[in-house]
């Protein structure tokens, strides 16, 4: 699809799978470290994935991880689908920036810098740092049940914004992205995308959100997703139009971000239902792209479970974390770092030392 110069088919050509040869080399090296097969459990699999995405055996320890959090407000929140007031996502952003939110605490403890990208917060931009608000596409996305969340031009701009942020991180040498989101109404938009992509009903994907809602709010949310589905299904074949119709600026930017990270060979650790929804749209655009993403956690949201099943992605943790802002993925980060350290530093047995075989170069596939 070409829309205003944005050619989604290019992603299919530009995104390559992480090298299968590198996986085999990593697995072969693993057999020579003197540990019984399966002794490290899933850490072995993460280690071979890292070898493939880094194009290197042995792998490099992870040293430049960044958390990137896309933020926005959704007009659908005015329908009472969230426990938070409509248009209040800026308060969540301020807590993250002030270092008082769960994601901020975990990121600080892990030594991970946090970038916040304001795509569509419904607030005066003067109340937030310029490095946060300079990305803004619009003030609040439209109510997806009765109108498009974005215009066609805004959707393309949001998609390209995500791509540009991915390029900035790749150019900075970031070796792993922790992807997060902060929004009010975002899980409703995610539910519509997942239901549309999976061909299922609203009730199957409707969860309780980051701040759990009561039964009446759940019914309102289910109705909103149902109405959004009616608007989403006619444009399923055009992913940018789909994101414009029901995704909003933050989810559109996250989708562009995920795809461009795959183009730039930058691995991403997904968080909850919102990032899973964007990954599902990204898979529809470029089927090789999910090989560059790892599911950090199972949030307990039914929509996320549906999306991860379609992506064939097994989450690293299952703790039911729904708070957003990348918190669940940050909890999984130590596992990924541990796998990288083990794959990088465990020596081979005498006669098969790591030094006796040079690292595989980045052009190996």
- Please report the distance between the alpha carbons of the first and last residues: 29 Å
Highest-level CATH class: Alpha Beta
Could you say what the CATH topology is called?
A: Rossmann fold
Shape: globular
Number of strands: 7
Rg calc: 20 Å
Poorly predicted sequence stretches spanning 5 or more consecutive residues: 351-365
Which secondary-structure class do the elements indicate? alpha/beta
Strand content: 5-15%
Which architecture does the CATH hierarchy give at level 2? 3-Layer(aba) Sandwich
Number of domains: 1
Spatial order of strands in the largest sheet? 4-3-5-6-7
The quaternary structure here is single chain
**Main sheet overview:** 5 strands, parallel
Task: Describe the protein.
It is built from 14 helices and seven strands. The strands form two sheets. Strands 4-3-5-6-7 form a five-stranded parallel β-sheet, with helices on both faces. Strands 1-2 form a two-stranded antiparallel sheet. A hairpin with a 2-residue loop joins β1 (2-3) and β2 (6-7). The model is unreliable at 351-365 (pLDDT under 50). It has 365 residues and is of the alpha/beta class. It has a single domain (65-339), classed as Rossmann fold (3-Layer(aba) Sandwich). The protein is globular, with a radius of gyration of 20 Å.
